[in-house]
Design goal:
Length: 158
C-alpha cells in the first residue's frame, strides 16, 4: 500500500504571506515605467524573488499596484538602499479607491544617501485606506537630476 498525501504548496490563495503581508502576485497587476531585466519588480514585492528592483533608465519612475479587488490597507513598508553614490532621493506614495482615476497623497519624503554613512532607508507607514483599488509609488532617484537609476529593495503591504 502506498501512502498518498494531498497537499498544497504556497499561499493557497489566501492572499497573504506567512508574515501577514499581502501576496501581491495573487491580488494585483503591477505596472512599472521600466525595469532592468536582471532586477525585475518581483524582487522588491515577493519574498525570495531577488534582491531589488532596478529601473532600466535614469530618472523618475513609477510603480503602480492595481488590485483585482479593493483592499483595506493598514501598513505600507518600503526599503531603499544605495551603497555606491551620494544622492538625495524623493519618493511619494499615493492611493486610489476609484480604479486610478484620482489619487490621494499618503507621504512625500526625501532621503540623503551617503556611501560612508546612510545607505539604507526603511520606512513603515500606518494608514487606514478602505477599499483601495490602486497604490502608486513614484521615485525620483536624484532630485537635482543626473543619471541615477531608481531602485527599490522592498515594498510590502498589509
Amino acid at each position: 500500500m502506498t501512502n498518498s498525501l494531498r497537499k498544497s504548496v504556497g499561499t493557497g490563495g489566501s492572499g497573504e504571506t506567512e508574515a501577514g503581508w499581502l501576496a501581491i502576485e495573487d491580488l494585483a497587476h503591477v505596472v512599472v515605467t521600466s525595469e532592468d531585466p536582471d532586477a525585475p519588480i518581483e524582487a522588491a514585492l515577493i519574498e525570495g524573488a531577488g534582491s531589488r528592483w532596478r529601473a532600466a533608465a535614469p530618472g523618475a519612475q513609477s510603480i503602480r499596484i492595481r488590485f483585482d479587488r479593493p483592499q483595506d490597507i493598514h501598513l505600507i513598508h518600503v526599503v531603499f538602499e544605495e551603497t555606491e553614490h551620494a544622492r538625495v532621493q524623493e519618493f511619494s506614495l499615493e492611493w486610489s479607491n476609484d480604479d486610478g482615476r484620482t489619487f490621494q497623497p499618503i507621504i512625500r519624503q526625501q532621503f540623503s544617501f551617503s556611501p560612508s554613512g546612510a545607505t539604507r532607508e526603511a520606512e513603515s507607514y500606518r494608514v487606514n485606506l478602505s477599499a483601495s483599488t490602486e497604490l502608486r509609488l513614484h521615485v525620483v532617484p536624484e532630485i537635482s537630476g543626473g543619471s541615477h537609476v531608481a531602485t527599490l529593495t522592498r515594498l510590502r503591504i498589509r
